Give the backbone structure.
Amino acid sequence: MFKHTRKLQYNAKPDRPDPLMARRLQESLGGQWGEVTGMMSYLSQGWSSTGSEKYKDLLLDTGTEEIAHVEMISTMIARLLEGAPIYAEADAYKSDPALAAVMGGMDPEHAIVHGLTASLNNPNGAAWNAGYATSSGNLVADMRFNVVRESEARLQVSRLYYMTRDEGIRDMLKFLLARETQHQLQFMKAQEELEDKYGVVVPGDMKDIEHTKYSHVLMNFSDGDGSRAFEGQVAKDGEKFTYQENPEAMGGVPTFKPADPHLHNDQG
Amino acid sequence: MFKHTRKLQYNAKPDRPDPLMARRLQESLGGQWGEVTGMMSYLSQGWSSTGSEKYKDLLLDTGTEEIAHVEMISTMIARLLEGAPIYAEADAYKSDPALAAVMGGMDPEHAIVHGLTASLNNPNGAAWNAGYATSSGNLVADMRFNVVRESEARLQVSRLYYMTRDEGIRDMLKFLLARETQHQLQFMKAQEELEDKYGVVVPGDMKDIEHTKYSHVLMNFSDGDGSRAFEGQVAKDGEKFTYQENPEAMGGVPTFKPADPHLHNDQG
Amino acid sequence: MFKHTRKLQYNAKPDRPDPLMARRLQESLGGQWGEVTGMMSYLSQGWSSTGSEKYKDLLLDTGTEEIAHVEMISTMIARLLEGAPIYAEADAYKSDPALAAVMGGMDPEHAIVHGLTASLNNPNGAAWNAGYATSSGNLVADMRFNVVRESEARLQVSRLYYMTRDEGIRDMLKFLLARETQHQLQFMKAQEELEDKYGVVVPGDMKDIEHTKYSHVLMNFSDGDGSRAFEGQVAKDGEKFTYQENPEAMGGVPTFKPADPHLHNDQG
Amino acid sequence: MFKHTRKLQYNAKPDRPDPLMARRLQESLGGQWGEVTGMMSYLSQGWSSTGSEKYKDLLLDTGTEEIAHVEMISTMIARLLEGAPIYAEADAYKSDPALAAVMGGMDPEHAIVHGLTASLNNPNGAAWNAGYATSSGNLVADMRFNVVRESEARLQVSRLYYMTRDEGIRDMLKFLLARETQHQLQFMKAQEELEDKYGVVVPGDMKDIEHTKYSHVLMNFSDGDGSRAFEGQVAKDGEKFTYQENPEAMGGVPTFKPADPHLHNDQG
Amino acid sequence: MFKHTRKLQYNAKPDRPDPLMARRLQESLGGQWGEVTGMMSYLSQGWSSTGSEKYKDLLLDTGTEEIAHVEMISTMIARLLEGAPIYAEADAYKSDPALAAVMGGMDPEHAIVHGLTASLNNPNGAAWNAGYATSSGNLVADMRFNVVRESEARLQVSRLYYMTRDEGIRDMLKFLLARETQHQLQFMKAQEELEDKYGVVVPGDMKDIEHTKYSHVLMNFSDGDGSRAFEGQVAKDGEKFTYQENPEAMGGVPTFKPADPHLHNDQG
Amino acid sequence: MFKHTRKLQYNAKPDRPDPLMARRLQESLGGQWGEVTGMMSYLSQGWSSTGSEKYKDLLLDTGTEEIAHVEMISTMIARLLEGAPIYAEADAYKSDPALAAVMGGMDPEHAIVHGLTASLNNPNGAAWNAGYATSSGNLVADMRFNVVRESEARLQVSRLYYMTRDEGIRDMLKFLLARETQHQLQFMKAQEELEDKYGVVVPGDMKDIEHTKYSHVLMNFSDGDGSRAFEGQVAKDGEKFTYQENPEAMGGVPTFKPADPHLHNDQG
């Protein structure tokens, strides 16, 4: 169960409105790697955890924090949209090209649909969907996913940082950068502990089942030399990579029985 | 540019048809972490690579192999669907409950839409979409994503393995397990090299910008003790985690200017 | 069954082309609350109605009118796109910034995909989908949905109204505003009749089953005071709201059996 | 900012596992009208509120409660999936038709993707998406939406109630039914207050602008008599409905200028 | 503008309920090639037509008919769902495997979401979306699309035909088969007329611009011989196909400038 | 199985960067009719083919070529994005309106998400999804689909051609135009051969089953005269079209049994 305080976790106050930056920040809210993806993935993983209480709690703590990040970015976006140009009076694209560019570059749905407040979309208006989130029950895989979530998110925040000189926005982004550093590092630590326990290749207990003959072979399918560069190196599981210049097609030319005529498939 | 041989990379021949297993295998084809996600992510990353030729080639070799995996699984699914029950004659759910269960558990679109061949969907019929794939230009983040892709995919193949006793299907899955071992290990190796070069926190050059005061703090937002367990441990970047029992809400209660009346928002 | 006349229900003729306004009007066509949502929801509800012929007919009348609204807006958009700048000659973003802003702000798919005619998308190019529509069989719930559809749609039309000074566009919007007034009012009237019959809480016959102890309690989960303001007020079903300052977590800490090891979940 | 307790808001403990019921409950979690839609809509509306603190707090209190409902249903689903049949040993659809039916009726992704825990999807595996949620800035419209959300959700819970005899599941559903009663009633109350302030037709201040001639006319587009039944009745804004048996097509037959030849459109 | 009669275009009355067939018929309603795709594509093309009144009218006549087909199938589905098993009493998957199979194979949302009436989804519950429809302004391309729509739709209806022995369902399918014959033939006829006018390769006036050297070459990218079989044959534009056994990669190895460091891309 | 060469099939080198053109070209990559749709459709059709080796090979050859087209366009887009304006320094929309227009018209995700390289989306940022692709098992229908894919794609490339004067982009587009000519023609040829074998109406063997009375009737549902224009003409199957001015509604007014009360549907 959850409780809410009206206070934000950190400042979310721009120096001045900027509807183009409002649009860009939607990436960190409703984009593939935005805060909603973090929030929904970590909470789901925590709620679904059938194992260690320690990791379950780490996930729920971080998921709970991410709700606060969605809150901060939503607040920031609404403030960046204050007074954004929407009127025909402006008739911007005829007489005032700079204003016109703002109107052209804004997300038109910010005004029409949301009354100049945040959406749950990315900057191109694609609605957030749960196909971005992950919860598999296997914590090694999912901790790795969480490190990626924080890596791609921090990368995007870093790019956003250079797209504005507004010190208020930058202040919030500096906080998010720091938290994404922490989250990357904590999930890596959990990942390492879990790898120690379950093995480095996920999942860890299928080694005796797989066709091991093919499990350390760099297969070359091109006229490039890059894959060969890893030949002889030691993989994280302690074995060495070998290299196959011309991997054979071992499966033969597939044939099928003719389909039932009532399917109206091609009958050859 | 690409060339194709009609021969499959490996065997994709079940001992006997099984339309329920055909449906389940769609996860490895068109699911969030299926082979199409691998193929489209690695190829995109390779084509977009503006850096090292070595990693570009590794990505394109692996992406090219994944096309062959999509081909193998498509072939396997079509074979598993041979002779699947579709006729009213069966009228299965009245007289033959076992057959009825097969008809109920099949993907009805396999017959109606695809003439008993594979789709590009997951087992619930959700169409593959590019929101599953990733290509960011930052190879540390993307190599991490690739390790996750191979981890979640191998996890799913491992679960699928126990869902059948068909030795033909298992033979193919054993091959996929092995290749996903290799791909996990090779992308980890590339990830490590790139972390050595660019730093372990992605992206590596924002440390002087972020609010470092918050970048190694485990924040507790619950009555659970799990996060505290990491206190004092050394993070992968060499610094130690601290722990904050009661993180403060530092951002104040947000206020907004009343919206322009022509937006018809609530005016308070 | 349906019949069509080539004549539009009302005027859809702008004074002059305006490709930015064409893009914005896509919200009223293919957006979440646009006319396609109205048309498909009301028709589906009507076709699915297993009850009163009166409401079925009201729904089908209104759904049939909405097809004509989609037709009018499609026509308007095509006319607004007549002569829109698409040529490289313009090379607008270098020499003519006002024109550049138009080109930047247009929906590029209007030209590339649709030959400067309407799409079935919203202004951000998201394709209309049936997840926007509703047909539940329960007419109280669905009439309420229909009132919302007309409310959000009229709100958007109101915002669009101030985004143009084109008297031709405004003429059409004034007609749509009026029809959305009518549709709000008629669906409210139907809703009231149905509430009288089936009860104000949907669905109306579960009162003896629910845990009534919790059915009139304003629960506070924050440090805000807003919810308390409703304390003691009379709800629409005649009972009074009570207020709970600190709602208890009554469900205990959940525990799970360890997952089957073959699932490769975390085992704790 | 948010805090979490490991304790659930209410019981979420089935008497025994039931993977088919687990699948059905996904509707209340990730479906169009499920708890995630409530949670994301109310939180977004609260965070975007530029008006009264009272309604903002009501929205955030309810949104915060909904997170706890998602948590409860996720927990319930994971428990219902404990020990679900996944093994080939069962080979269910050949020898044990009852077991086969369970396997056929389960969501195969529950096992393959989520390790027998909850997803963020509906029972057909469609991923939750933000196109289900609404936040417009206009609180009359949005409170109406919220009443609908609680109406459709309670309707679905009512239907789910009769699909099981498990007293543990029913206990949780009885609690959800009660809370959805409360939420319907509280949002209706807020809606009424806001209608008193802003007018009953949303938005309230466009009356002088719209073509009022068409704003209280029941238009008949069919050979049905249902719409006529409302003729002469008093609408909620105090005016009477009139009825038009044969609404005229007032807009003429639309014509277009021939498209620019470089668009390769049909030239007539 | 449109008018509606309560009478269906043709019979839609099954001999008896069959919830599995109800699910399958959703393909013809809300699937990729279902009637909604026809209806929305033909109406959009008609409304967007900037050319010949003749084709515009053909499109609008057929689009108007398709609304009636959606109506018929919606009606059929609701009737097939009458009395479908939804109760726990059945507890079907324990005691009555045949009934269990029905419950397992039904679309659970038919009951939970739609009260046993039709949805706007396909049999796997994927919501219809406008990405299935097409309206390009170019009538040759779009008439071809329409022929495909009618071809894939008729194929699916043909497969559905053999999945039931219910004479009521079959009666409706026989009517749909006939109309899809007519629609294929009429759109082919229109396509031919338009090809005569605009040329057989769409669009018809780019021949002098394209690199004609590559426009009649069968390029072989495999070890298969199939493409060669067309060598020397006369294409529909009167020219002969040539065959290239080993197409050359003419574009060189692409290189990029290193990305701006602030993007944090790999720098090589 | 596939092999890759680092060399592109053809030149993909613009004369100079142009981020607006980069955005537009996404249509040919990840749009409904873009190269990914071609690649995934032809490969799927080829892998699913249960009939003639000749068509299977033609499909796989063309599908393999399309991967190379995706590669070329991805390369072109990354090059067009080199040096695109992303910095706040520009602060473009205030001081330099021409630059502002570029920034407003760019896809913001090109910079934020992809580090100025290509995405798998269309120009409006909608992710490619498998609902655009088709593979039915029936090669007549699918060859027709393929002709449409190449027609709509070539139409879009033709429109894109006039949107730039960059000779490097045009060079690549001229090559694509040529290949799309070839692919249209080769699929038409295959279609004709298959029509000769299986009949012109798809599928070819349902003629004796359908209600033939309705299979050559142009039905008029409007006050337009266009459909009548085809009266008496000979359809491609050799029969003549007849015309019905006022098609009768033959299906009667549908009635339903009242729904089970536990569904809480309207009871009339």
